[in-house]
Design goal:
two-stranded parallel ribbon; single chain; seven-stranded parallel beta sheet
């Protein structure tokens, strides 16, 4: 895998911290990493965005944005309201492909969910992934409702012929409720793809050195980690 596209089942599910964990684990494995934020919204020109947050947590990554817009809205809406040109899927794909010639791994982080619109023509992160022929990693919530949004995302990827690499739980609670514990076993079934990790709630609050040292324990070997899905599932079984 040279390029991996990272999307979520919605907003605030932990895409950025998962991206940082994947980047940190790949760096620890000796790989060079670039992180591309397809469209950053909700930040001022001089404020750090998601790609910069990944660099803060993970370390020596190349952090790139295609463009950014000040209002915290869907990229197409944010671009329109700012009177600016939108980010197109082909721009995302071209930028990622160039980064892939210079790095071992390129992580492309989307905004919101898979079908959030980037331009007036309805272009999405899924279109960028298709142009890149890149697998998609889905970040999902732990609790009630996540099975529906995860399955919808997985089905959409399947309908487009895009590989679903797997699912990572973006924030695993310290005291998971019954729904979360059952979801550990059910998520791989509804996604028809493996569970590749679970990040503890509050992971982004760790000091960068602690985050980098611990990140591989949260992710499966396919993501350069040591986390074991079977052991985790057994431990959480109600």
């Amino acid at each position: 895998m040279t390029v991996v596209v990272i999307t979520g089942t919605g907003t605030e599910v932990g895409k950025t911290v998962v991206t940082a964990a994947v980047a940190a684990s790949a760096l620890a494995a000796g790989r060079s990493v670039a992180v591309l934020k397809a469209a950053q919204t909700g930040v001022a020109p001089d404020e750090p965005g998601d790609a910069q947050e990944v660099a803060r947590l993970a370390g020596a990554v190349t952090a790139v944005e295609v463009d950014r817009y000040p209002e915290p809205l869907a990229p197409a809406t944010a671009a329109r309201r700012a009177g600016r040109a939108p980010v197109r899927p082909d721009q995302v794909a071209e930028t990622a492909a160039k980064l892939a010639t210079e790095h071992d791994l390129v992580l492309v982080e989307g905004a919101g969910g898979l079908l959030v619109r980037y331009d007036a023509a309805g272009g999405t992160l899924a279109d960028a992934a298709a142009l890149l022929r890149a697998p998609v990693l889905v970040v999902a919530a732990a609790g009630l409702g996540t099975l529906n949004t995860t399955e919808l995302t997985a089905r959409e990827l399947g309908s487009r012929g895009i590989e679903l690499l797997g699912v990572v739980i973006g924030s695993w609670p310290e005291q998971p409720d019954l729904a979360a514990r059952c979801n550990v076993a059910d998520l791989p079934d509804v996604a028809a793809a493996p569970l590749l990790g679970a990040l503890p709630a509050g992971a982004s609050g760790l000091a960068p050195a602690a985050f980098r040292a611990t990140a591989p324990r949260w992710l499966a070997p396919r993501l350069h980690g040591t986390w074991d899905a079977e052991t985790f599932t057994v431990r959480q079984s109600p």
